[in-house]
Amino acid sequence: NKIYHDFFASINFDIASLESFDIVHVLVSGGIDSSLLALYISETYPDKTTFVNCYNPYDIKGALDYFKTKRYISIRPAENISYAEILKDAFLKIPEAQEKLDQHRYDKHIFQCCYYIRHKAFFNDPLFRTPGSVVVSGIKRGDGHHRAMWCLDLLYGKYNDGKATFFHRHKRGQLYCYPFRDYKYRDLPDDVVAELRRELPTVEHTGCAICPVLVIFKDRSGVKREEKRLRDSMAYAWKLGVLGETLDDLK
């Protein structure tokens, strides 16, 4: 697809860098960023691309059903966990997180829901540490401060002897690839999204339907597409008693 190819060329990612791998695992959520990567990479390497999703009952599904019809892996926790309790515990930490943010000491790891719901089962699965495999992530430089810092570390070769790279082998053994390393904006170009929606009409921005991080940064995101998720997240936080006595913040 020329539109996709030209876009990735404009942000310096050469898909030929995946040629040497036997297996290319593309993390998919059904959202716009991961779906673009999944389509583009699978068009080029149809015989060695697999789509990987970490099961989450709170996820907005987007175009995930499309990928389920292909070579698809759903990662689920090795033990029974209560997603509802994990999310509740995270929301109950909002006052603590807000206090740290006010003191400029905020740490995203204060909320453990992403780790337990999205990442833990994936990190523990030996499949993604198989020699000759790579895991492709849709993290973008424009997604926020922490991700921007990570992408800049890759660009400046912090973990690669000072040489720019799109790859990083994490401490758990998985080799990751970050094609959006140099993309500085939160949303993809309109022509790319229009082409993606032509192929995947149900694609949309995804994420957990409610998220404590949205509550903490409600005045900073300025992203209209987050309004429903923010409102639902604020309502849940209020229900738990971590927003005070009124719903004024929802107005």
Based on the model shown, name its key terms.
alpha/beta; 6-stranded mixed β-sheet; 251 residues; 39% helix
Short description:
By secondary structure, the protein is of the alpha/beta class.
Could you please describe the fold and organization of this structure?
With 251 residues, this protein is of the alpha/beta class. 39% of the residues lie in helices and 10% in strands. The chain is built from ten helices and six strands; from the N terminus they run H-E-H-E-H-E-H-H-H-E-H-E-E-H-H-H. Strands 3-2-1-4-6-5 form a six-stranded mixed beta sheet. It is globular and about 55 Å long. The model has no long low-confidence stretch (mean pLDDT 88).
Strand order of the largest sheet: 3-2-1-4-6-5
Shape: globular
Number of helices: 10
Give the rounded overall mean pLDDT. 88
Tell me how many strands there are.
6
Radius of gyration computed on alpha carbons = 19 Å
Helix content: 25-40%
Going by helix content, strand content and strand pairing, the class is: alpha/beta
End-to-end C-alpha gap: 44 Å
Q: Let me know the largest β-sheet.
A: 6 strands, mixed
Beta-strand content estimate? 5-15%
Task: Please render the helix and strand layout as text.
Layout: H1 2-10, E1 23-27, H2 32-44, E2 49-54, H3 64-68, E3 72-75, H4 83-92, H5 94-102, H6 113-124, E4 133-136, H7 145-155, E5 167-169, E6 175-177, H8 190-199, H9 212-216, H10 227-239
Parallel strand pairs: 1-2, 1-4, 2-3, 4-6
Antiparallel strand pairs: 5-6
